[in-house]
Design goal:
The structure is a homodimer of 354-residue chains. The first copy, chain A, has 354 residues and is α+β, with helices and mostly antiparallel strands. In chain A, 38% of the residues lie in helices and 16% in strands. In chain A, a hairpin with a 2-residue loop joins strand 2 and strand 3.
Chain lengths: 354, 354
């Protein structure tokens, strides 16, 4: 598989084992290590490269510095038949949101629709992970989160009070792949800026502006400005509302309370997230619905294309293709990341990736 | 109030009475005429000028041509404790959505969160109307709709298969005004293009492109192209998901099924919409929550501003200011609209606006 041009591949199972060993070495219970590793590998498998094993060194550093609870008592604090609020007890976000998603699905299977919010959670990887979970139970999942660092001001302002607050929605289809939207409410996610810093390429106009409102295209100047929301005031409004629903409503951090988890490894982030599960069967025959989603897929695909486009894509289509390919061929680990993971393995006394 | 530069004003109550008379004259039951007029006047009061009495001639024309049912049997077809699907029986959208919102609130007051979808509804005015309804019951409202004409293709395509599918969210505050987001998933709503056609002004780049992908800035060329979604593929994805949730999931029209209600006054539109009501008390103390929203308001407002901006605004702030001013001074009716309403009054045999 390896060439000079392509990063070496690691099989999904090998990557998962590596992550499990890392978590066990810092004291995670076995069940939690397995689950966290499964979700982090899945992030890489679906192509969310900035949200999978890439984050492992950062998570481990936070655990070692006492900023994350490895034995959380994740518990329901508020509950009605169609909702709950979970206290994540500063546990790993993946574990908190996995629990939240399953409570939401169990409730929705009875009430039709259910919403579970969390506080004192942490970074949980790509939003798509949780929006996808309800799909296999013939449900629609909708997940929102507060990002773990503020990267933009309210529209027209200059104080960074908002994050890229993402929204993800997963919808099952029949013969076609599921439709899975996963989007930041900014034109570019901050990870894309980081990639440009690494590659040295210019950013397109529209990603960032400086404090005078001028475009920033040189990624090395990223600290001089901030990300732009999609649609200007609209993306700002949407990000603000997600902040209220995922943060304020759950008693989680929002605005000036948000901890920059890239800079501060000790302070509890009090991250807020929520998931909504919709049981399709409550609305209509599940097979009919899935066939309708197939038809939507085919209809969008059948549109003639603009010059410069080869095809129309559905949300999640690229991710599905990557997942299929990586399941077969393994997950590419770029050399710089491999070096970091080798150093981590050394530090933790576990076997490095092959 | 009247000057040569400013359109004549009509008081809120006079406008409402006029709309009631119009509906009674075409056979609406009194209760429905009252409710529809109240909501349409409210649309004008909050500044949604393209969605209030402006639409009355079009609605009346549809009723006269048999495209809208004036005696609908609006009924629950599917139901669980936290959800329902309503058949709007091709009734007026305002009546269908008013019913849906109240069912959602009643259910949410027990289950914490509730979702009501509708099919065989019709155009229901501005999205904010319904997202605002739960506020007075200390709930958060979230409303989405399928627009009543397709104005854009899927991203990268050229066949217009999507509408401006809006999302609106209403959040109560304590001393500050409620936060009310109401946004199309396109950079510009189509009504703004129509306003530019009337004014003869150029459109900014980014609103529309033609079938070759080039910007359209001349509004008279609007038919040569289509609206652009916010954030490119992101707004497309969001609009598509809203289409599935508001349309497909309720058995309502989406994609090629959408009827252009500006061109076809006879065919049943089978419009789909949904509302989600969230009972804040299920999550936390209501007063604490509202004080937190006040703090968010003050925090955003306190941000220093970019050059060219006088202030940071919260979603719904402009609309709140307009509503206060119009409550005092009445609703401005532009001369061209007044002429249309005078002709309508003549046609219906009712008293014109003063």
């Amino acid at each position: 598989m390896t060439t000079g041009l392509e990063p070496r591949r690691t099989s999904c199972s090998e990557l998962e084992t590596f992550i499990i060993q890392a978590y066990l070495s810092v004291g995670f219970p076995e069940e939690d290590a397995d689950l966290a590793a499964d979700l982090m590998m899945e992030a890489d498998r679906i192509g969310a490269d900035g949200h999978g094993v890439f984050r492992l060194p950062q998570y481990i550093k936070r655990i070692k510095l006492g900023g994350l609870n490895i034995n959380p008592d994740i518990r329901i604090e508020k509950e009605r038949t169609a909702m709950a609020v979970l206290n994540g007890d500063n546990g790993m976000g993946h574990l908190v949101m996995h629990r939240a998603a399953h409570i939401a699905m169990d409730k929705a299977s009875i009430t039709g629709v259910a919403w579970v919010g969390v506080h004192h959670s942490n970074h949980a990887g790509p939003a798509a992970l949780y929006a996808r979970m309800p799909i296999e139970r013939n449900m629609i999942g909708l997940y929102c989160a507060i990002g773990n660092a503020n990267h933009l001001p309210p529209w027209g302002g200059t104080e960074m009070l908002l994050s890229t607050n993402p929204i993800a929605v997963g919808v099952p289809a029949n013969e076609e792949p599921s439709i899975v939207l996963d989007m930041a409410t900014t034109v570019a996610a901050y990870g894309k800026v980081k990639q440009k810093i690494l590659s040295g390429e210019k950013m397109p106009e529209g990603w960032m502006i400086d404090r005078q409102g001028n475009p920033i295209t040189d990624p090395s100047r990223a600290d001089d400005g901030f990300l732009l929301p999609i649609g200007g005031p609209k993306g700002y409004g949407l990000g603000l509302i997600i902040g209220i629903l995922a943060g304020t409503l759950n008693g989680a951090a929002f605005g000036r309370d948000v901890i920059d988890f890239n800079a501060d490894y000790k302070t509890t982030t009090n991250t807020g997230q929520f998931i909504l599960a919709i049981d399709i069967e409550a609305f209509m025959d599940v097979d009919d619905f899935k066939r309708d989603v197939d038809l939507i897929w085919k209809t969008m695909k059948s549109s003639p294309t603009l010059p410069g486009f080869n095809e129309v894509r559905l949300p999640g289509e690229r991710s599905n293709r990557i997942a299929e390919e990586r399941t077969r061929n393994g997950i590419p680990i770029h050399p710089a990341l491999r070096d970091r993971l080798d150093r981590l393995a050394d530090e933790l006394g576990i076997s490095p990736l092959d």
